[in-house]
Amino acid sequence: MKVLSSGLPVGEVVVNEDTRPFWEGAADGRLVLPRCHRCGTVIWYPRHLCSNCGSTEADWFEASGRGTVYSFTVVHNGEGAYAEATPYVIAYVELEEGPRVLTNLIGEPDSWSVGQAVSAVFDRDSDGEQALLRFVAAEKQPLK
Ligand code: ZN
Questions:
Q1: How many Å apart are CA 80 and CA 86, to the nearest integer?
Q2: CB atoms < 10 A from the CB of 37, how many?
Q3: What residues does the ion ligand 1 have nearby, CB within 5 Å?
Q4: Hey, which residues does 37 pair with through a beta bridge?
């Protein structure tokens, strides 16, 4: 399992036709999400199937990357590859476009609060090939 620049590990990423636009955007440092062509719902996790109306037609767009902390917890006893990354933060971030994303917050574990503004970053491995969506406090610079 790889460890990314945040110090958090990442499992193998499987890219398929349903998720390819998301991962191609991530590689470029852009948060690209599907929006239902029929009802306008922004879909998370990335796929063509709308969780609201069942349509399988989605248009992909570049999201703002802005969100707020909906809920979070600080993990002190991680399992497996995460054991060496403690303490770390697991959170739901509510994106400006609507979806709530299960993710990690990158920064001091004791510095977070519900409702806090955050910005999307793409946490990369040392060769820059793998980029995973995580979030930092809104005033912080993104990871490169
Ligand atoms: Zn829909």
A1: 11
A2: 14
A3: 36, 38-39, 41, 50, 52-53, 55
A4: none
How far is the centre of ligand 1, averaged over its atoms, from the C-alpha of 58 (Å)? Answer: 8
- Rounded distance from Cα 65 to ligand 1 centre (Å): 21
Residue 131 CB neighbour total at 10 angstroms? 23
Span from the CA of 62 to the centroid of ligand 1 (angstroms): 18
- pLDDT digit string, tens, across residues 2-38: 888 888 988 888 899 999 999 999 999 999 999 999 9
Instruction: Work out the pLDDT band at 140, boundaries 50, 70, 90.
Output: low
Which tokens sit at 81?
């590859």
Domain ranges of the chain: 2-137
